[in-house]
Amino acid sequence: MADDGGLARFQKRMRAVPEAARRAVVPALEKSAEEIADVMRATVPVDDGDLKDSIKVTGPGLSTPPYSQPGGSMVVPELTAAVTAGNADVRYAHLVEYGHGGGLHGSAVPPHPFFWPSFRLGRKRALNRIKRAVGKAIREAK
Q1: Could you give the C-alpha distances from 106 to 2, 81, 94, 101, in angstroms and in order?
Q2: Residue 107: what are its φ and ψ, rounded to 5°?
Q3: Cα–Cα distance between 92 and 127 in angstroms, integer?
């Protein structure tokens, strides 16, 4: 057999990268989503209760709770994790996050942001973890 200068080995390694990266990214996604959800639970403006209990992490291929924020019920795409607040019984997560005017007879309720600040706080760490997992998978692909 003729020497191809390592081309066959390189091509085999490149074919292995996508599957290895997919496998490696799932634990990093799940851990990062759980960390962000923990920050949300810690910063929600109540010590306990339905809103705090409604903060959930949903993995790939699963459905988020109905009426959850942001976006309501959806099937989470592959290689994605979703953190949501709210469900069929807790439909007011967005009112806590953004506040509301109170209507004709009610008083205005100021916003108490907990969802997006927690996401922004954990996003850089999550991205770095995912990049490290993919990079490690690429280096280890044979």
Answers
A1: 83, 37, 18, 8
A2: -95, 155
A3: 29
Contact by Cβ (8 Å): 74, 93: no
Structure tokens at 15: 């074919």
In terms of Cβ atoms closer than 10 Å to its own Cβ (0-12, 13-18, 19+), residue 68 is: buried
Question: Which uninterrupted H or E stretch holds 50?
Answer: helix 50-53
For 5-44, give the DSSP string. TTHHHHHHHHHHHHHHHHHHHHHHHHHHHHHHHHHHHHHS
Local confidence pLDDT in tens for the 142 residues of the chain: 567 777 888 778 777 778 878 888 889 999 999 999 999 999 999 888 999 999 999 998 999 999 998 888 999 988 889 999 999 999 999 999 999 887 777 788 899 999 999 999 999 999 999 989 988 888 887 6
